[in-house]
Amino acid sequence: MNGEADTTRWDASTPVTVDLRLSVNRDEYPITVDTRETLLDTLRERLDLTGAKKGCDHGQCGACTVLVDGRRVKSCLTLTVTLDDREITTVEGLADGDAPHPLQTAFVDHDAFQCGYCTPGQLCSAVGMLAEAAAGWPSVVTPDMSAAPRLDDDEIRERMSGNLCRCGAYVNIVAAIGEVAR
Ligand code: FES
Ligand code: FES
User: Fold this and answer.
1) Domain range summary for the chain, segments of one domain joined by +
2) Which ligand places an atom closest to the C-alpha of 63?
3) pLDDT over threshold 60, residue 8
4) Domain 102-181 adopts which CATH fold?
5) What distance in Å separates the CA atoms of residue 57 and residue 121, rounded to the nearest whole number?
6) What pathway is this protein said to act in by its record (predicted)?
7) For 23-48, what is each residue's pLDDT tens digit?
8) 141 Cβ neighbours under 8 A, 6+ residues apart
9) Is the distance from the beta carbon of residue 35 to the nearest atom of ligand 1 less than 6 Å?
10) Percent of the residues in the chain that have a pLDDT greater than 90, as a whole number
11) How far does residue 168's CA lie from ligand 2's centre (Å)?
12) For ligand 2, is residue 23 a contact (CB within 6 Å)?
């Protein structure tokens, strides 16, 4: 070094942006994103889709769960820049017009929430979980890995263990999901 500024060094304070076409709940959003931006922040702060919640922002609570191409992801750990042309579904997109998703109806019928903060993540996670089970994916409590998983309460609890509920509505959440699974 000769004492002059090294202009070849990357400056972390300068955002790097990328143009994307996001598809969320069947709507298209042409958007320019900072490559460090999480999907949760894009949804909540820029698209005004505030259903997914920021509980921990560290991948630990599941309140931010959404679906990407039908599979559940924690949006606080997912960089938006990776989602060009992927199909994102949030809790706002689960209903079919005015008809709630069967899981939404079951959550109401079983009183499966108290404050409701975790509920959008629980619902999206349950949708993804039911698809995983229908595709034959075992969990660590599946007794017979070669047979189609049967969604009893133990299976549902295990498969939903990434979604915490600080109100402790677990018993009713399991009952609601169990009804839809049957
Ligand atoms: S906010 Fe994403 S897991 Fe808690
Ligand atoms: S209903 Fe309050 S955190 Fe789950």
Assistant:
1) 17-93, 102-181
2) 1
3) yes
4) DNA polymerase; domain 1 (1.10.150)
5) 13
6) Alkaloid degradation; nicotine degradation
7) 999 999 999 999 999 999 999 999 99
8) 154, 155, 158
9) no
10) 88
11) 7
12) no
